[in-house]
Design goal:
Blueprint: H1 2-12, H2 14-18, E1 22-25, E2 30-33, H3 38-70, H4 74-102, H5 104-116, H6 123-145, H7 147-156, H8 161-170
Antiparallel strand pairs: 1-2
Helix pairs in contact: 1-3, 3-4, 4-6, 5-6, 6-7
């Protein structure tokens, strides 16, 4: 799946190269797409958030379909399926909400750009910070919200609570 996502991300950058919208920004020392045109901004936002959200939804919908097909007894199975569906929908909502909330600062700068016509000097830095913190938070949320991953991580990283209690009592 990551290789497929990488290929899709590379192909989705094609329009930016075709429109010749990638320019060097001497004040920031890196190349970036011109964001003054809405279709360039849409392409960037799709690459930053859209692809990840689409793949996340596809994975969770695939899990929900699998759970629907797995039921055997009708009455108890229907209740169990409804509870699982509710849990899956809640997890999807939490993850997508977290991704969208972390994109709000960038959206505020975009709105400021289109209203004033001037780009704020911190626009790119805040944008990259939002994208990188979204990816980092997505990793932690997936680990926290997936019980199997959560158990696996807890097995790998043992927490020694006895040492923490001894350390707190000895300092008193």
């Amino acid at each position: 799946m990551p290789i497929f996502e990488l290929v899709i991300s590379g192909l989705s950058q094609g329009p930016l190269l075709f429109w010749q919208s990638i320019v060097y920004m001497p004040q920031d020392y890196f190349c970036y797409a011109q964001i003054q045109k809405p279709h360039h901004m849409f392409c960037l936002m799709f690459n930053a958030y859209g692809i990840q959200i689409i793949f996340l939804l596809l994975i969770y919908f695939r899990i929900a379909i699998y759970l629907h097909r797995r039921t055997k007894s009708q009455s108890f199975a229907i209740q169990q399926r409804q509870q699982r569906d509710l849990i899956v929908i809640r997890r999807i909502s939490i993850i997508i909400g977290a991704l969208l909330i972390l994109g709000v600062p960038t959206v505020v700068f975009i709105i400021m750009l289109y209203i004033t016509g001037e780009m704020h000097p911190l626009f790119h830095r805040v944008g990259w910070l939002s994208v990188s913190s979204s990816i980092m938070n997505l990793t932690f949320l997936v680990i926290l919200l997936t019980p199997q991953l959560n158990r696996l991580i807890r097995k790998r990283i043992p927490i020694n609570r006895a040492n923490n209690q001894n350390a707190s009592t000895s300092s008193v």
